[in-house]
Write a structure and sequence with these properties.
By secondary structure, this protein is an alpha/beta fold. It is 34% helix and 21% strand. The protein is globular, with a radius of gyration of 19 Å.
Length: 327
Amino acid sequence: MSANKMTNPKTTPPFRFALAQYLCRSLPPIIAMRLKEIIYPERLGQRDNFLFLARSQTGGWFKGSTVEMHALELGICGYSTYRNWAIAIALCNPGDTILEVGANIGTETVGFADIVGCDGHVYAFEPFSPNVESLKTTLALTSCQNVTLLPIALGDKDGIVEFVPPKGTSTGTGRVAHLDTGVHLTPLQTTPIGVQCAALDSLRDRIPSAAFICMDAEDSEVYVLRGAANYIERSRPSMVVEAHRKVQSELHAELQRQGYIEFSISRYGLKPVVELAKHNANWFCVHQSRIKVARYVNKTLLKCVLMPCLFGMNPMRGIRRRKLRHV
């Protein structure tokens, strides 16, 4: 994407983009995301290639372009994958630590940073250098400076691994090439590059115990969990992991081995994983010693999905006010 095609964020936004912002920002997310697709679908964002500066529903600022799907969602609605924020809100207190494995361009990072506040910390792992640069741009807008960006992949060993970069504007589809998980190059994918990889256990003396881990590693979740077994055992944090259909069986076995119980994150809340799905899913994983927390997480999820994004109604709103009450 050439810089001269980017629109200055101070210029007038496309009419339909501005209309979608105006109508969607205060609606319940379950409605807002659908309305956004009607008023300003992804194809219009690709066409307009508009660079914007927008505030997230949690209060932080984000800079992105309408050509990227997740950035477009945050620019209009104030969030992208808001269910992960809802889970973090339920689990985390000001001053806590969050680990984000696969931070992409920062659409979730900005909310996590707001949720843990200036006394907390977010460790964001992202190996793809163009995404890292986008993250740096957004993180420069924060007043707390409570995010540490680590430009590496996580896995089960330290060293250089092959990484398949994302194609085009799909910034979140890059992945480590593990042949035994069925991740092969296709004509639509680009040539692998070498990136630095580390096992989380090798970093455990540098990273405090986490209250929450959010993991979107594009089929590498099993490797990340194996390489983080000692770190995870230290505090048994609740986690969100992407469960790709091709590796769900292996992922389920590894989570069970580490003492975790999985819930599928559905449209309206959590559902126990009673059988493995034939499609990709996102799992909320809680250690069996803390199973009771799932009920509160489910309650917070429902509020975030169904309530208007207004102060005092949706938990995503008023995050910074919540921090002030804890100072």
